[in-house]
Amino acid sequence: MTEPDVVVIGAGPAGLTAALNLVRARRSVLMVDTNRPRHAPTLHSHGTLGLDGIPPLELRKVGREQVLAYPGAAHTTGVVTSVGADLTVSVTGQRGGPDLELRPRAVLVATGLSEVLPKVENLRAYYGTALHSCIECDAYEKSGQALALVGIGPDLVVRALEIAHWAPDLIVFSSTLRTEDEARLVAAGIGVEREPVVAIEGERAVMTGIRLASGRVVAREGGFVRPEWIPQVAFLSDTDAALDDLGRVVVDARFRTTVPGLYAAGDVTAREPMQIAVAAGEGAVVARTIHLDLLDALADFRDGLPIG
């Protein structure tokens, strides 16, 4: 394979948008992706103009086809095992994809986040249909239902108050709430259950309730979970790329990392998952940054280049 100008690691909204803009800037681009996105269980993606309601896997398929329609664009199915200090990218092929070792001029990390869901029996069976993690994406469809919020985290109260805007019949299931946080939720008309959750109950794929450790079942039609989100960046360990205390890649306003030629955009830089439109917007910005950084004529203006 001819060495591409840019290797894009991850083909979600950020990576695909960056790749599209880069090939339109006449840069050769190789996208490396496993096609196993975090949001695959979700039936529909919402909140993106012109694409509201599109299935996530369909969005990725269409985006990939549009990028590959341009000369200089390529895609391979595989896992990036390492990015070297000299930007050498090592790829282990999957599902027929070849093993590769590449030395591009630039590398974009757009691998997103993985989710660690609460350890609750049957939760995954309802995740993406009755239960979701993205409030902005899915709360509208839950309007007026009897909902649950399950999980832990410092933002649980904020999430509960936000969800209650769409569905006032809300119960928070958490054993770690501070007394003052519970009082605030109760004052807002939100219920609190401190008993541990052990299972999601349902009939014929329809969620009917939350089963607690005592065996008691609290009737609920659906709800939200608060996962732990983990950036996928282990392959950067051979670089000097700075990470923050949550393991996210540190970038500047133009999405450059602390390593020359290495960039990052999308969820891999975020505290929690972004909406598609936001991640795609970052992909467009970082594509312009990469393109301008690769223009030798602009080398003396690197720090003064406009963002957009």
Automatic annotation (TrEMBL):
What is this protein identified as?
NAD(P)/FAD-dependent oxidoreductase
The chemistry this enzyme catalyses reads: [thioredoxin]-dithiol + NADP(+) = [thioredoxin]-disulfide + NADPH + H(+)
Q: Can you give the residue ranges of the FAD/NAD(P)-binding domain?
A: 5-283
- Source species: Gryllotalpicola koreensis
Ordered alphabetically, the record's keywords are: Flavoprotein, Oxidoreductase
Q: Do you know which InterPro entries this protein is assigned to?
A: FAD/NAD-bd_sf, FAD/NAD-binding_dom, Ferredoxin-NADP_redctase_2
